Amino acid sequence: MRDKTLCVKRPEVSHEGFASLATPTYRASTIVFDSAEAYANRSKRGPDGYTYGLHGTPTSRTLEASITALEQGLRTVLVPSGQAAITVVFLSVLMPGDTVLIPDSAYPPVAAFCENYLKPRGISHRIYDPMIGAGIDSLIDDTVKLIWTESPGSTTMEIQDIPAIVAVAKSRGVLTGCDNTWATPLYFKPLAHDMDFSSMALTKYVGGHSDLLMGSVAVKDMTLHKKLKDTMRMIGMGVSPDDCALALRGLETMGVRLAHSGRVALNFARKIADRVAPELVLHPALPGAAGHAFFQRDFAGASGVFSLVIPSHAEAALPDLLTGAQTFSIGASWGGTHSLLAPMTITRATDAHAHPGTILRINVGLEDEDDLWADLEPIIEAIATAPAVKKAV
């Protein structure tokens, strides 16, 4: 071969005797074939075959298999974000004339997607009280094809009665799905509770270091897996193998990170509830929290995210208190090593669980507990200054 060809063609190098604990990062757009016949028959390689880099490399397949095992499913697809995980489910099973039910507590972009993208294309949605349980039967008509859940709800932390909702859905022939980002499969397994789709924002606890964006959808039915993959192919959706490598790295430490953050967050939630009105502290593991009994029944543990309702008398002081925090950072997302504070204003479609004003979402990372508490204590003091919100003795 001539020099220019040698610059491009790689020599074969033996892998004999080489074994690494790290998953190799396989970057590829084009995947080559041994023969013209193999290329012509590439569509017959099945769901686990390799045809083009957009549709998977050994790196992404390793991450898929790892998540599938944790989810107790059959297959997993990887998408560019947690929101993409939800939208690809909706797009794969809903057609014009269909309806999806979404909880009032869901991640706000879910409702926005339904209103601004699905609705103009003839797909309806209805918003339901997350605590409706078996009562969701009253909302199901012949157009309802999917019930979406998020347990606990983003920011407001309600735990839904998943078994009751699934039982009703199965009896009516309706699919169900769950955004399981908060708990991860370590603490809750939607597919084991007979749900059809289990989604996560891998951006959060799986990635674990606030440096990647990715989502996953796990299923236990190959027909649903095919619908997801077909939809992803049609809209050109895929993930970067480099991001998959980061997610695989994060997955290895997720168990210890989640245990630590969950322990510290629950300790903080209890300390705060002792200082202010307990109903201001939104944490599923606290008695009196919305769905606490369901949490005790269905969950193996709690993660490191909870919320604090800021009463009106403390709202004016909050911006300066957040800006003055030394260890917490201010920012969206959660699940990484850095602790975060995010002031949120939540608009609810139902009044049953409304919290007017600001809700402060607290994500506990891996910093020292005393340093974190030093940032929280002035906020707690500002809330506790009004006699009306102090805990009754």
What does this protein structure show overall?
Helix content is 37%, strand content 15%. The protein is an alpha/beta fold and 393 residues long. Helix 9 (241-275) packs across helix 13. It has helices spanning 3-8, 36-40, 58-71, 82-93, 108-118, 162-172, 184-187, 222-234, 241-275, 292-298, 312-315, 318-323, 369-384, and strands at 75-79, 99-103, 124-128, 144-150, 175-179, 197-201, 215-219, 281-282, 305-310, 329-330, 340-345, 358-363. The model is unreliable at 389-393 (pLDDT under 50). The protein has 2 domains: 23-248, Type I PLP-dependent aspartate aminotransferase-like (Major domain) (Aspartate Aminotransferase, domain 2, 3-Layer(aba) Sandwich), CATH 3.40.640; 255-389, Aspartate Aminotransferase, domain 1.
Please give a handful of descriptors for the protein shown.
393 residues; 37% helix; 2 domains; Aspartate Aminotransferase, domain 1; single chain; Aspartate Aminotransferase, domain 2; 7-stranded mixed beta sheet; alpha/beta
